[in-house]
Design goal:
Elements lengths: L7 E4 L18 E9 L1 H12 L4 E7 L11 H6 L11 H13 L13 E5 L9 H14 L5 E4 L8 E3 L4 E2 L8 E3 L4 H9 L18 E5 L14 E5 L11 E7 L6 H4 L2 H5 L1
Parallel strand pairs: 1-11, 2-3, 2-11, 3-4, 4-5, 6-8, 7-8
Antiparallel strand pairs: 1-10, 9-10
Keywords: Signal
InterPro entries: AB_hydrolase_fold
Protein name: Feruloyl esterase
């Protein structure tokens, strides 16, 4: 049976001032790649999924909108892609831009999205990213893939957060660490969607082998001095995957605003 989570990397997006002892990543036997994220991390996950669709073959998006939603416009970012004061994302326009960017080889062909499994989540009480933005993302993805490949959850009465079974703030309260105690396993729902419900769920969603969660040095992969990617990330490597003798799935998750290590420690990596 496939393990519940073959390989998970959590990337820290905000730079760190103090770094702990870090491991150096080794070469692993990777069979496939998927992404996920919350809020700003959700938008990053969508950008990665669409731009690199020849490599990434699944996504779980929590409170995020379509590719190129803001169109490099700060006003649009806040009032089309969050609170929809200006009417929300223009799906047809963004889909057209996606095709055009592909034609110029700026991004991979969206044809690659046609067989990807996609999970979408928006809390019914989300006051930060309006649920209609996530619904627009569903419409956007539907341009490129069959609707049967998309699973959407809009009925959990949560605020702006990643929902969990038993960890975090009160589900419908907007507060740090933006991980909600909602009696709902959001991460599990996303991964099961991506992997066609073939994963074996753990006995308890709060239990994992802590010795397999590592901090790693991201600086070798940062080429721009203006990058906001932190020096440190977290990676969970199941014991069976560490030798490289078997192929394992790679899942990359991008945290949201105010979920960096300095603010909430390793909670995003360990508790979602």
């Amino acid at each position: 049976m496939q393990s519940f989570l073959n390989l998970l990397i959590v990337i820290t997006v905000i730079k760190l001032i103090h770094a702990s002892t870090l491991i150096e990543l080794q070469s692993y036997n990777i069979s496939d790649v998927s992404v996920s994220g919350l809020s700003s991390g959700a938008y990053m996950a969508v950008q990665m999924h669409v731009a690199h669709s020849s490599v990434i073959n699944g996504a779980a998006i929590f409170a995020g909108g379509p590719y190129y939603c803001a169109e490099s416009n700060l006003l649009y970012a806040e009032e089309k892609c969050m609170d929809v004061t200006l009417g929300g994302p223009e799906v047809s326009k963004l889909a057209t831009i996606t095709w055009e960017y592909s034609a110029f080889n700026y991004i991979d062909s969206p044809i690659n999205l046609s067989d990807d499994n996609i999970y979408l989540f928006s809390g019914a009480d989300d006051s930060v990213v309006d649920p209609t933005v996530v619904q627009a993302l569903q419409s956007y993805y539907s341009v490129f893939t069959d609707v049967d490949n998309i699973v959407a959850d809009y009925n959990v009465e949560s605020e702006h957060c990643i929902p969990t079974v038993s960890f975090g703030e009160v589900c419908n309260r907007l507060s740090s660490p933006y991980i909600g105690n909602c009696q709902f396993d959001g991460a599990g729902a996303g991964l099961q969607t991506i992997y066609n419900n073939k994963l074996t769920a753990p006995v308890s969603t709060s239990d994992y082998n802590t010795s397999n969660l590592f901090s790693f040095d991201q600086t070798p992969y940062i080429t721009s001095k203006q990058s906001s990617i932190g020096d440190q990330g977290y990676i969970y490597i199941p014991t069976a995957c560490q030798s490289g003798n078997i192929a394992c799935s790679l899942h990359v998750s991008f945290h949201g605003c105010k979920q960096n290590i300095e603010t909430i420690g390793n909670l995003y990596a360990s508790s979602t």
